[in-house]
Specification:
By secondary structure, the chain is of the alpha+beta class. The protein contains three helices and three strands; from the N terminus they run βαααββ. A three-stranded antiparallel β-sheet has the order 1-3-2. A hairpin with a 5-residue loop joins β2 and β3.
């Protein structure tokens, strides 16, 4: 009498990790995500380790979570994993105000982003 279980949205050779509400604009996050798309997970982790961008730390944590999900939950071979998808989405924007000259205000937008990484077992595509 319970709720029917939903089918797994990914293939059997894939694992996923998601980070929500990352305090960075989607444009900046997509620049970092673009550097690891299609790469083997080891090379992608090395790339994120030497990146000077602040958000690379968050992306590295999500990639490590996806690798751990693949290994522990889906019994995939870690050495054969590569980043199949790295999609960035826009979420809320905090709006702040700053006093400017002659009684006017300057609008400050503080955007947040979502990151979704899918790792796949198999040979590297690109």
């Amino acid at each position: 009498m319970g709720k029917k279980s939903t089918e797994r949205p990914l293939a059997d050779n894939e694992a996923m990790a998601v980070a929500r509400q990352i305090r960075v604009s989607p444009q900046k996050l997509n620049l970092v995500a673009g550097t690891i798309r299609g790469k083997k997970c080891g090379a992608a982790l090395d790339e994120l380790m030497v990146s000077h961008r602040r958000v690379a730390i968050e992306v590295r944590k999500v990639l490590q979570a996806a690798i751990a999900n693949a290994e522990n939950n889906h019994q995939l071979d870690v050495d054969r994993l590569y980043v199949a998808e790295a999609s960035v989405g826009r979420t809320l924007v905090m709006k702040r105000w700053r006093a400017r000259a002659r009684g006017r205000v300057g609008r400050i937008k503080k955007p947040f982003s979502n990151l979704r990484l899918v790792v796949r077992e198999g040979e590297e595509v690109a």
